[in-house]
Design brief:
Largest sheet: 5 strands, mixed
Strand content: 35-45%
Oligomer: single chain
Helix content: 10-25%
Number of domains: 1
Structural class: alpha+beta
Strand order of the largest sheet: 4-1-9-10-11
Length: 220
């Protein structure tokens, strides 16, 4: 009986793995899933209440990402939060498994540097959708090989003032800017008004930077 259970468990695991690996191709993607990542400028910490995705088939993937965004907070206070890097990272996030190409991203986040709560709708144009499934020859310096790469990473940068800037990127491929959106203040406040106006706490190092140098509004 134990042997039968093990065989059944192995069969189920294999079936699930097969479904996962074929999920992207079932949605017209040349890869298993696309990545939704979020990041913030140095010291300008954010707390993501929710990042929801809507694909081209109008299916909604709620809380595809939530929590802290990728950020650097050097203890020397010598990090530079102004502007966006020429080659931003993928950000902290997750693969949106089972989704077709993205049509819309909704982000509601707390800008802890201010503090303020914002929400933004990010529309993904058709040209960007097509760029996400276009294979391109790319040279990867890490392994010294040429490969066919895809821009399967969708990254959103969140900055004070409610700025949300978006790129698509892929391994060994240059990022492509998608859009820059001005978010709106969420009048209900953090957590939908359920926290008496209290935001997620800002770290001591980021607080020290902001108290010394301020927030570089207008640079994003």
């Amino acid at each position: 009986m134990n042997k039968l259970k093990r065989l059944l468990a192995l069969g189920l695991a294999t079936l699930l793995a097969g479904c996962a690996s074929g999920a992207g191709k079932a949605q017209g993607l040349p890869y298993d899933a696309w990545w939704l990542g979020l990041l913030a400028p140095n010291y300008m910490e954010v707390w993501i209440e929710t990042a929801d995705a809507v694909d081209v088939n109008d299916r909604v993937f709620r809380q595809a990402m939530a929590g802290v965004a990728a950020i650097q907070t050097p203890k020397s206070l010598k990090g530079d939060p102004t502007g966006w890097p020429e080659h931003p990272g993928w950000g902290k996030g997750r693969y949106v498994t089972g989704a077709a190409l993205p049509r819309l991203i909704y982000v509601r986040w707390q800008s802890l540097a201010e503090p303020q709560t914002y929400a933004a709708y990010i529309v993904i144009p058709e040209a960007i959708q097509q760029a996400m499934v276009k294979g391109e020859k790319a040279y990867c310096s890490l392994d010294g090989k040429w490969t066919t790469g895809y821009r399967k990473g969708l990254t959103v940068g969140l900055a004070p003032g409610g700025i949300a800037k978006t790129w698509i990127m892929g391994p060994c491929l240059a990022p492509i800017e998608v859009t820059r959106v001005q978010g709106e203040v969420v009048k209900a406040g953090p957590y939908g008004g359920k926290s008496d106006g209290h935001h997620y706490p800002l770290s001591d190092i980021s607080k020290a930077y902001i108290e010394k140098y301020g927030i570089p509004y207008g640079s994003w």
